[in-house]
Request: fold
Amino acid sequence: MATLDRARLASLLEQEQAAYTSNHPRSRELFGQADNLFGRVPMTWMNMWTGGFPLYLDHATGNRVTDVDGHTYVDFALGDTGAMAGHSPKPTVAAVQRRAGELGGITTMLPTGDAQWVGAELERRFGMPLWSFTLSATDANRWAIRLARLATGKPKVLVFAYCYHGSVDEAFALPGPEGKAQSRPGNVAPPVDLDLTTRVATWNDIESVEAALAHGDVAVVLTEPALTNIGIVLPEDGFLERVRELATEHGALLLIDETHTFSAGWGGATRAWGLEPDIFVIGKSIGGGIPCGAYGITREVAAAVTRHTDAGEADIVDVGGVGGTLAGNALSTAAMRATLGEVLTEDAFAHMVELATAFTAGVQATFDELDVPWSVSQLGARAEYRFARPAPRTGEESAAAADDELDAYLHLALCNRGVLMTPFHNMALMCPETTRVDVDRHTEVFREVVGALFE
Ligand code: PMP
Reply:
């Protein structure tokens, strides 16, 4: 098995860093001028881009991004799924222009007919009959968790170690001593001790799920169908089915968050794998880049909620804690209708999944040829490599395989060769406009930069 030479990695990283700095003078200059931005970026997480300063966007279309220094990239980051439909897909742009310009009324607090169209389409894809809209997946998770607490009368959320569901307070937990939840390192000023709100289990470890649920205080199991925010950690056979059964046995609801795993197919992993959630959350991609999100619930959950609201015990209409002024606005719903109806179609998914399969095979070929101790996992239209072989089975194992220096080297080396990967991950996502030539370009460049490390 090939071994990593840290000294060689450090010197390659230095070369790539120097090339990045000298090739992007305009981005560097703009970053240097951003004195009024906290962390010099529009949002602090943009400092996740490696290289000391982010690329500044000039324009983007399809799967191409061009920076202010005039370099054009094949974009596999796709806004970490926000641009899974490609950048500025034409049908979405047309619908947005019509709503914002010709028709007018970006946000009026009034519904349009688009919302019902989207609700029906979401039911066709994901099965849930009743939907509410948000402006982010985070909000969808937050509000859905409140409904789950109300519906079950139980206080806690069960999550998996190293999950990510947006900035949801309850989810920043790791297993601690004596089965208690503890705050994840880096969690910014949690409002209360995580053990008051959360139980934590280990992915693919059904006994840990059973032990957490056995306390009888879990309102909702909040999970992705595969972990996707600590590399992709796929579920083992039967794991999700057993989680579903255990949730039911212990009176907890199952919330499936498909914000990323929508990549599994046109109906997400829920359709592809026959999952049976009580609550379904999605965001990011379905508006083609326009802020939006949604949660769907079963009729049983709806009835359990309205029992309490009808009795005057909770308020989901005024200031009870569910909803936002701009949620479900006309622009956002027009964008969702166009994106789901005309861009992220069944045919588009077939193309995207085929390309992700080729991408995965290309990465695996480099690993095999050079005997690199890494792995690659595919989830429909997305794929991700991780610095462990075999592929990690749990969030904990995957976290242990993190390597910041390797991440920095690969991201910079690929970027310097015209390929953008998601900054938080080594994730690549295909969009309807990605081509086989783009995938082959990654395969070739990946072979070159990994070869420089191991040959
Ligand atoms: N759920 C999952 C599974 C996610 O990966 C993310 C973001 N990466 C979110 C929710 C939150 O999405 P947003 O930041 O758009 O609210």
User: Anything to note?
Assistant: Residues 80, 136-138, 164-166, 224, 229, 257, 259-260, 283-284 surround 4'-deoxy-4'-aminopyridoxal-5'-phosphate (CB under 6 Å). Residues 346-370 form the longest helix (25 residues). The chain is about 40% helix and 15% strand. The mean pLDDT is 97.
